[in-house]
Design goal:
Blueprint lengths: L2 E5 L2 E3 L5 E8 L8 E7 L3 E8 L5 E3 L7 E6 L4 E6 L8 E9 L2 E4 L3 E5 L2
Parallel strand pairs: 2-11
Antiparallel strand pairs: 1-3, 3-8, 4-5, 4-9, 5-6, 7-8, 9-10, 9-11
């Protein structure tokens, strides 16, 4: 059974940092791309960052230069380091993997950026 467990969210002041982590199990982790997405009430679901099985990465424009996605093929984790956080980064963040056209989601972790 594929399982994704996200953690690391919280409340942070503007300009601060948070590191999200997603622990994966139940599939051949190193063979699949992983993504972080976020959902806000105003903007809906937005893809934030992707990391491919060859470690190539991609980011939404608003995250470039501030966020870094990485994965550990030994621990089966994918992390999202978020720096210089802004109020507009406030959202529920989800990790995601697509396996044979089926999308699997972690439970979501709330990130709130506020003074």
């Amino acid at each position: 059974e594929v399982q994704l467990q996200a953690s690391g969210g919280g409340l942070v002041q503007p300009g601060g940092s948070l590191r999200l982590s997603c622990a994966a199990s139940g599939y051949a982790f190193k063979n699949f791309a992983m993504s972080w997405l976020r959902q806000t009430q105003g903007k809906g679901l937005e893809r934030v960052a992707d990391i491919m099985n060859d470690d190539k990465t991609a980011y939404v424009d608003s995250a470039k230069g501030r966020f870094t996605i990485s994965k550990d093929n030994v621990k089966n984790t994918v992390d999202l380091q978020m720096n210089s956080l802004k109020p507009e980064d406030t959202a529920v963040y989800y990790c995601n993997v697509i396996i044979t056209l089926h999308a699997y989601w972690g439970q979501g972790t709330q990130v709130t950026v506020s003074s």
